Records
---
Amino acid sequence: MRTWLFLFLMAASPVRAQVQNWDSGPYAANGGIRFHDDLDFFLNGYTKDELKAMRREVNLWRMNFDKMLRATIKDIQAYSEGGNMEAGTHDFTLPEARTGLPYHLEAHSGKLRAFMFGSISNPPARAQLPFWDVLLAKYDTAQVELFVVYGRELHPGDKKKFSKYPAPSSPEEKLGYAREFAQLTRLPVLVDGLDDKVFSAYGRVPNGVYVIDGEGRLIFRGTWADSRKIEHILDAVLQWEAAGRPELKARH
C-alpha cells in the first residue's frame, strides 16, 4: 500500500514542482534515489518584479551585459561541467557564523542535508533566504538539515548596493560579512575559508544548491537555489523512505 501511495504522489507532484522545464522525477542510482541536476544559467525561476528588484541592487545585472557575470558563467562551465568538479559529496568542516562552532558534514550522516552557497553581495541567494526559512520550519531536524555556506562574493564592491563589501582580504573580514548575512535568516550560516576550498570543491557556483542523502550521496545539484525544487526533492525522498524505499527505474 505504501509503495502505491509513493508512486501516486510522485506522479502528481512534478506538476507543481516544474520550474524552468526541470525534470523533477526521481530515478535509481548508486543504490538510492537520485534527481536530475539543474544546471541552467538563467534566472528564469524568478518573476519579472523579483528580477527588477535584484537588478536595482547591482550595476548591469542583465546577463547579456554584465562582464563579471559572464566570467562567472565561464567559471561555472569550466569547473562544474569541464571535469574539474567531481560530481559527488565533498566532506568539510566549517565554523558557523553566529556561534563559531564547527559543523562536520560527514558527522551528520543519517539525515538529508540541503545547502546553498550565498554571500551578502549575491542578490539571488539573499532573495531565497525567506523561502528557505519556511522550509527550515517545515522539516523535522532529526530528518533534514538546511544551511548556507558563505562562499564567494558575487558582486564585491559594487558601487551601488555593495560598496561596503569588497572582496574580503582576511578570514576575519569574511566572517564579519557572514555574520551580517546571518542576520537575514534563521538558517545556520557556515563560513568557507578565504581560499574558497569548499566553494571550489562544489563547482564554484555562487548560488549553487546541493542535496545529500543520509548515506552521504549527492542526489541533486543546481545552479540556483530554488526553494521549490528543494522542497519537492526533500518531500519525495521522505515519502520514498516512508514507503519502504520501493524500486525506482534507472535513468534513461
---
Amino acid sequence: MTSTVTNITRKRGRPPGSKNRPGDGKNQSLTRALTLLERLAESPKGLHLTDLSYQLGMPAATVHRLLNTFEEMNFVEQDAEQGLWFVGLKAFTVGNAFLNRRDFAAIARPHMETLVEQCGETVNLGVIDDGEVVFISQVESREVMRMIVRLGSRSPIHASGVGKAMLANMSEQRIARILERRGLARFTEKTIDNPALLRDELEQVRQRGYALDDEEHAVGLRCVASAIFDENGQALAAISLSGPKARIVDARLGELGYSIRQTADEITRELGGYRPG
C-alpha cells in the first residue's frame, strides 16, 4: 500500500525517472533565472549587465538572454539611457499573490475604507510603472458625484496626486529621466508643464508630506496624496483621496492632507517601513 502511494505521488509530482538533480539542464536554467530576478530585487537602484554577470558568475550572453526574456514578460525593465536593469511590475504582481501578508494592497484596504468613512471621498492606491501612475486598488465614495478610476488604468505622473507624491521621493536623476522620457503634457490650464515649477512643487510635497492635484489633470477634480514606504525608506506606492472641487474646498485641504499622510504612515508602519527624513 505504501509503495502504491509513493508511485502515485511521484507521477503527479514529476515525470517517472526524474531525479530532480541540481545539474539538470532545465532546473539549472530556472535557478539561474530566479537568482537573477532576486538579485535585481535586492538592487533598487538597478544594475548594469556587466555587474549582474560578475555578481552571479554567469556569462554576459546568458544574463542578457535571461533579461530579454524577462523583459518580454514584463518581469524586468531597462533604463536604456543608463543601461540599468530593474525589477518590473509583473514581478510585483506575482510576489503579490505569493503571500497576502506582504500584499500592501490588502494591508492598505481597511485603512482606505476607514479614510473614506471619515472624509467621504474616494480613496485610490497607485504605483509607478514605466514613468506613469497605475491604479491598483480603490474604495469608492458613497456620494453621487464621485471620482472613479478603472483598476489598471494609467495617469500622468506630473499631473496626479499619486504621481507627485511618488516623484517627490525619487532621486533627482530618476526624476530627470522620467521627465525627459515622458515630458510634461498639458491637460488643463493648471497643469504644471514647467520643469522648474514642478521641482518647486515637489519640494513643497516633501515639506508637507502630501501632494496636491488641483484640477491639473481634470477640470473640477482635486485630490491629495501621500506616499507609502518600505523597510528601506523607499516609496513603493501612494494613496490619494479624490473628489469634486465643490466638496474639496480650500478650507479642507490642510485637514485632508493631514488625514491622508496619517493613513499612509499607518500603512507604512504595518508594512514595517518608515518615512525618510
---
Amino acid sequence: MDGSGNARPTALVTGASSGIGLELARAAAADGFDLVLVARNREALERLAEELRAAHGVAARVLAADLADPAAPRKIVAELEAAGVCVDALVNNAGVGTWGRFDELDPEGELRTLQVDILALTHLARLFLPGMVRRGGGRVLNVASTAAFQPGPLMATYYAAKAYVLSFSEALAAELAGTGVTVTVLCPGPTRSDFQRRAGMEGVRVASGFPVMQSSAAVARAGWRAMRRGTRVVIPGLLNRALVQSVRLGPRRLVTAIAHRLNARAS
C-alpha cells in the first residue's frame, strides 16, 4: 500500500500516446502502478489504457491535454484532486522539437517547444512535489536527452531546453535529499520513435545515420528502473555514455561544430 492509502501507487505519464512515453506507461503498469495517461491524442490514450488494464489489471485514467497550453498543468491537477487521485510518481516525458536555422523557424513553434519542454515540466513538478514531500515519499522522472550536454546548432531551442531539464532535475534531487522524494533525469541518445518525423528531421545525419539507435522500450525500461532506485542521472547505452564523456572533455567550439554537422542533412 502506498503513502496515500491506495491499494496501488499511481504514476502520471505525460506524452504517453507514443514513443518513450508509451513504453514508460507500460513499464509502470508492469510494475503494479495505476496510471494517469496524458497527451493530446485521446484515441491513442484510450487504446493504451485498455491494453494496460487487460494486461496488468491496473486502473488507467485518460486525460487529453495539450501541454503547450499554459493552463493545462493546473487543469490536470484540479481534475485529479476532484477525483481523489494521488500521484506517487510524476513522469515528465512530453517533449517537442523543431529542426532548422533559428532565425528561419516559425516563432510559434519555438515558443511551443519552450512551453512543453520547460514550462509545463516545471509547473507540473511544482504542483505535485509539495504533496509528495508532505507524504514523505514520491518519485519524479524527467526526460531530457544527451542533447542536454552540448549546444545543438539547427536544433538550438530543443538542445537548450533539454540542458534546462538536466540542470533543473539535478538541483531538485539535491534539494529534496532526505525528504523521501527522489528526482531522476533520463538522458537518452537518438531513439527509434516518431520524434524525428514530427521535428522535421528527415535526412538529418543524427536521425538516420547514428550507429546505434535504441528502441523506445529499452530507453523506457532503463529510465523506469533508475527512477525506482532513485538514481539522479541515467544515460542508457554504453555508446551514449561514452559520447557524453567525450563532450564534457572536448573543446566547446569543436563539440558545437560536430553537433552542427550531425544535425545537418546529409547531402
